[in-house]
Amino acid sequence: MSVENVLKTIQENNIEWVDFRFVDLSGRAHHISLPASEVDEETFVNGVAFDGSSIPGYRGIEESDMVMLPDPEAVFIDPFTQHPTLNILCDIATPDGEKYDRDPRGIAKKAEEFLQSAGVGTAAFFAPESEFFIFDDVRYESGMNSSSFFVDSEEAAWNTNRKEEGGNLAFKVGVKGGYVPVAPVDTQQDIRSEMCRLLEEAGLRIERHHHEVATAGQAEINFRFDTLKKTADNLLVYKYIVHNTARQYGKVATFMPKPIFGDNGSGMHVHQSIFDGDTPLFYEKGGYANLSEMALHYIGGILYHAPALIALTNPSTNSFKRLVPGYEAPVNLVFSKGNRSAAVRIPVAAVTPKGCRIEFRTPDSTANPYLAFSAMLMAGLDGIKRKLNPVELGYGPLDTNIYELSDAEKGKIRSVPGSLDEALDALEADYEFLTEGGVFTKDFIDNYVEFKRSEAKSVNIRVHPHEYSLYFDC
C-alpha cells in the first residue's frame, strides 16, 4: 500500500486515530497515537518522535530522542478500539535519519537484503506455528516474603471435581489429551474462530485452527507463510489479536512457553524455505525427503549454530522449562523426515515441490520474531556458504523416536543448552555468522546478551516456592 492509499484508507473508513507501533528487544509492541487529522505525507517522511531511553535495551537518557518511520505496507484497522484506529508498524531511526542498528525490524530488513546480495535466492519464506494457552484466571506475585502463581481453566484436568461451576459439566481435557478433540471437550472453538475472523480482516490468510495437546486450553492457529519481515509483522498482529480477543471473551491468552507443570508447553515451530523467483530451491526429487543439497546445507547451518541461535529463538528462562525431554520438546539437535522428536523436521505429508521446506521445532514465542527469523536465515546461509553437511557433522538423519532410545544412544546426540545463561554463553562464543553483511552488529550482540543476562539473574537470585518443599526442614 502506498502512502496515498494509506491516507485514502483513513478517509474512507472515518479513521479518528492513527497508531504508530514499534517493537523492543523482547518483541513487545509499543505505540503512540496521533489524531488522523495530523497525519499527512510528511508524517511518513519525518516520522513520529519518541523517547528511546524509556524502552529497555534501546538508548541512554543522554541520547533518548528517536524517530518512528511508518511503513505504509504494514497497516491494519484495529478491531478492538472504540474510536476507529489505523495501526501502522514502523522502523526506527536516529534524529539525523540514520537507521538504528538495534531496531529489530531494521535487522530483518538487512537480513533480507543480505540474502539477495549473497546470490543464493531472491526471498526466504517463513511460517511460524505459534501455540498459546487460553486461561480463565491468572494470578501471580514475586515479592520479598512470598512468591506464587495460579492459573485456572474450565477445561483443566484438575477441575474434574470442582464445585464452583454450579454443577460440574465434566468433559475436561486430560493431561496430554487435548489434541484436536471435538466439543464438548473442546470448549474454545468459537473463540478461536473469532480470532481467525479478525486476523483475516487484518490481512492474514488463515489456514486452520485447532485445540493443542495440553490440558487447560492450549490452542494453535496457523496463518500463511510470507517473506521474513512480513511474517514477523504478521506474528505481531497475530499475538495482538489473540490477546485482545481472549480479553473480550473474559479470558486471558498467553504465549509463555511453559505456564503449567507436567504437560506440554507452547512452542513456535518455524517452517522456512528459499526461492529464486518462483523456483523453490529446497526441493530435489529423489533426495532424502526430496531435499536439495542447498536445503541440507541450510539444515547444517541451523544445527551447527543451534546453541547460539537458541539465545535468540528461546530467549527466556521459561523457555528452558519447555526444553526438556518427554513433552514433545525438540531438544535433540538432529534432523529427520516427519519426526517430531528431532529439532529439525522435514514435513513429508502432502508436500509439493513449492511446499518443500524445513521446520525448526525448537523456538518459542518469547522470541522477537524479527531477530529469531533473521538469525535462523543467517545460520542457514552460513551453512550454504560453508557447505555444512549435517550427515557428515553427525546430525542425522535419525528416523526413530529419539525419546525411546537408550541412555547410551541418547548420549551420542548433541542437545540444546540447558539454560538461558548457557545459550547466551554460546552466542558470545559464536556470533560471527550473524554479523555477515552487517546484518547484526557486535554492539547489538553485546547489548542483547547484557539485556538477557539481567533477566536470567533476576530469576536465578529469587527464592523458588518448590525450594520450600525440598529444603525447609533441613
Description:
It is a single chain. Strands 6, 9, 10, 11, 12, 13, 14, 15, 16 and 17 form a 10-stranded mixed β-sheet that branches. The chain has a 5-stranded mixed β-sheet with strand order 2-1-5-4-3, with helices on both faces. The protein has 2 domains: 98 residues, Ubiquitin-like (UB roll); 349 residues, Creatine Kinase, Chain A, domain 2 (2-Layer Sandwich). By secondary structure, the protein is α+β, with helices and mostly antiparallel strands. 45% of the residues are buried. The termini are far apart. Helices cover 32% and strands 23% of the residues.
How big is the Rg? 23 Å
Briefly note the CATH topology name of the largest domain.
Answer: Creatine Kinase, Chain A, domain 2
Reported for the largest beta sheet, the result is: 10 strands, mixed
| Oligomeric state of shown chains | single chain
Uncertain spans: none
| Distance from first to last alpha carbon | 66 Å
Query: Helix fraction?
Result: 25-40%
Question: CATH superfamily membership of the largest domain, which one?
Answer: Glutamine synthetase/guanido kinase, catalytic domain
Based on the structure given, which CATH architecture of the largest domain is correct? 2-Layer Sandwich
**How many helical stretches?**
14
Domain GS catalytic: 104-474
Domain GS beta-grasp: 13-97
Catalytic activity: L-glutamate + NH4(+) + ATP = L-glutamine + ADP + phosphate + H(+)
GO molecular function: glutamine synthetase activity
